[in-house]
């Protein structure tokens, strides 16, 4: 069976260089995946792949492990392209209740997953990816590839609106069964930690020790 990939972006300016079909989120995410390919992935307009073989390698990884969803490391970079922070890693549903720990630009998802469980909720502007991941994580086979595959600029929506981002994340966790008090506690903890980390970054603190190229 031949596998193709549909690259979804949040605008029409993205150019894919390895021969896969490019679509835009405005045209209908799930419809485009169904029409154009068997594997769907999301790459924001200010993100880019670390190498030209990322898509083909991730698709091969999915096929070899028969995964429904695969993900990898994402490097957050400054405007000069220098790596500041690395996110991603193997994660359980229990860990996801604490916060969104999956780097969504690295996620590759089979179309059958969207067919079974639906796509991103329009009710969330920032945390729709978190809601989707929480909905499917314990119901599908997930594989993690310990490789950095995406460069993501630090000036994204969630980084620019941390309080709103964590509020939406709190709402997601409540919807999926987290207790009210633990959810509120996590919200304040993550907000405080976010600003402490931002302060530490000003003084040169970096989190780029994770394994993977």
Supply database-style keywords.
disordered N terminus; alpha/beta; 213 residues
Verbal overview:
The chain has 213 residues and is α/β, with parallel strands linked by helices. The protein is 39% helix and 21% strand. It has helices at residues 29-36, 54-65, 93-98, 111-117, 128-136, 157-160, 162-175, 180-202; strands at 5-9, 21-24, 39-42, 47-49, 69-77, 83-87, 108-110, 142-153. Strands 1, 2, 3, 4, 5, 6, 7 and 8 form an eight-stranded mixed beta sheet that branches. The longest helix is centred in the last third of the chain and has 23 residues, at 180-202. The two termini are 29 Å apart.
Write the SSE topology.
Layout (H helix, E strand, L loop, with lengths): L4 E5 L11 E4 L4 H8 L2 E4 L4 E3 L4 H12 L3 E9 L5 E5 L5 H6 L9 E3 H7 L10 H9 L5 E12 L3 H4 L1 H14 L4 H23 L11
Helix pairs in contact: 7-8
**Global mean pLDDT:** 78
What string, H for helix and E for strand, traces the elements in order?
EEHEEHEEHEHHEHHH
- Percent in helix: 25-40%
Q: Which stretches are poorly predicted, pLDDT < 50 over at least 5 residues? A: 1-27, 33-37
Structure described in brief:
With 213 residues, the chain is α/β, with parallel strands linked by helices. The chain is 39% helix and 21% strand.
């Amino acid at each position: 069976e031949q596998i193709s990939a549909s690259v979804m972006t949040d605008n029409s300016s993205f150019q894919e260089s390895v021969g896969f079909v490019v679509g835009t989120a405005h045209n209908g995410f799930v419809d485009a995946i169904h029409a154009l390919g068997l594997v769907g992935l999301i790459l924001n307009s200010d993100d880019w792949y670390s190498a030209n073989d990322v898509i083909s390698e991730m698709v091969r990884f999915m096929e070899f492990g028969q995964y429904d969803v695969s993900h990898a490391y994402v490097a957050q970079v400054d405007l000069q392209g220098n790596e500041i922070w690395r996110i991603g890693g193997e994660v359980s549903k229990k860990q996801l209740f604490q916060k969104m720990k999956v780097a969504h630009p690295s996620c590759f998802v089979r179309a059958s997953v969207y067919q079974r469980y639906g796509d991103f909720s329009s009710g969330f502007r920032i945390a729709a990816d978190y809601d989707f991941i929480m909905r499917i994580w314990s119901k599908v086979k997930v594989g993690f590839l310990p490789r950095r595959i995406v460069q993501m600029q630090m000036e994204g929506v969630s980084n620019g609106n941390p309080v709103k981002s964590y509020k939406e994340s709190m709402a997601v966790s409540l919807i999926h069964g987290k207790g009210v008090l633990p959810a509120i506690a996590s919200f304040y903890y993550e907000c405080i930690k976010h600003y402490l980390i931002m302060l530490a970054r000003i003084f040169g603190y970096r989190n780029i020790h994770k394994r993977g190229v």
